[in-house]
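Quick one - inputs below.
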Amino acid sequence: MKIGIIGSGNMGRSLGILWAEQGHQVFFGSRDSEKGKAVAQKAGLGTQGGTNDEAAAFADVILWTARGVMPSELLSNKEVLNGKIIIDCNNQDIPEEFAYPAIVESLAEKLASDVPNARVVKAFNTMAQEVFELAPAPLKDYQVSVFVAGDDEQARSTVMQLATVIGFAPVDSGVLRNARLVEGLGDFIRMIMIGQQQGSYATISVNVLPKAEQQRLGGRQASALY
Amino acid sequence: MKIGIIGSGNMGRSLGILWAEQGHQVFFGSRDSEKGKAVAQKAGLGTQGGTNDEAAAFADVILWTARGVMPSELLSNKEVLNGKIIIDCNNQDIPEEFAYPAIVESLAEKLASDVPNARVVKAFNTMAQEVFELAPAPLKDYQVSVFVAGDDEQARSTVMQLATVIGFAPVDSGVLRNARLVEGLGDFIRMIMIGQQQGSYATISVNVLPKAEQQRLGGRQASALY
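Output:
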C-alpha cells in the first residue's frame, strides 16, 4: 500500500517506519522538503521524503498528523485527497488541570468537512508515542486497542488491517460521528498518563470476556443475582 | 462497611449481593418498602431491606442507582447523606443511533450539586450488568477496570477497595469533574456493545504495559523510530 505521512514528527515517523517494515511504500511529507527527505534517509527501508503535497499525491492512505490544520491550509490543492483514506490520529490540546471541554465536534469531523470527498477515519489517538517502541512484538501480546471510526466501511477495514500488522488490536467503532467518543478516550487516557501519573505506557483495551466462562457461570444469573 | 442501595433494580441487587458475600452489611432500599424487603429476603446473606430513606440512614456508603433522580426528590431529608460516600453508577439514556450529546455536566456532578455535603464518587458505569455474574472469580483474571472519580481522596480509596474485593481492577481517575470523561467511556462501551454488536461482555481495561519490556526494547527508541 502507498502511505503518505503528512507532518513527519514523532508520531508520523514512528508509524511510517513501522508500516515500511511491513513492506508498505511510505512517503514522509513535511512543510520543508529537505526535512521530509532527511526523515526518509534516516528511516531507510526504501522510504521516500519530500513535501506534504508530494506525500498527498503519492499515497492511497494518508496519515494526517497536523493537528487542527486543514488540508485547504496545508496543501496547494486539497482535491488531490479525493477518494483517498485519511487517518486522523490527533487529539485536542491538554487544558490546564485536564479540564477538557465537551467535544461538540471532533477533529476528525472537522477534517472531513474540509475534504468531503476523502474518506476520513479516526484512529491511533489513544496511545502515547512510546507504545510504538513495542510494535509489532511484544505489543501484540497486550491486545492494545486501536479505535477505528469512519463512515466508509472499506476505509475502516483498511485502517484496521494497518493497525493489526503492527501489533495492535483494532476495534471497529462505527461511523465518523463516533470520533467524538474516541477523542474522548484520547482525553481520558492522557489524563490517566499524566494527571494520574501512570506514564506513557498506560493503554486502553476493549476486551470481550470469554464465552466459555459466561456459560459456566450462567447459573448464577438466574439464581443469585437477580 | 454499611452499604445502602438506593433503587434495588438489577444493578443495585447485583452489587449489593456481591458486597454482602464479602461480609459487608447491605440494606436494599426501594420507593416501595415491601419491594426492598423482598429483595433482601431473596438475597439472604444477612441483608436488610426497606425504603430508600431507611437505606440512606443506615449506610456509610450509598450506591445511587436512580439515574438522574436527585436526593432532594427521592429522600424525605437529603441531609441524612451529609458526610457519606455516594457512588453514582449511572449513564445517560442511549440516544437514537448512539448520537450521544456532548457531556457538558456529568450526572455525578449534578448529584453532587444536590448534596454538596456528601462525598460523591463516580464508578461502576462502564460495564453491563452481565459482567457481575463473573464476579469475583473468574472476573479478577480479566483485569476489568472500574474508573473511580471524586473530589474526596479517602472516598475514592474506599470505592476502589469495594471494586477490588469483587474482582475488578480499580483505576484512580481523579477529581469529580473527570466523571465527564468516565461517563464518556460509559457511552463509548455501550455503543460498542450494542451498536457494534460486541455484546454485554465487552469491557474496558486500562493497562500499564510492563516495564521490563520497555527496558528490553528501549534501544529502539534512540535508533530506529525517532
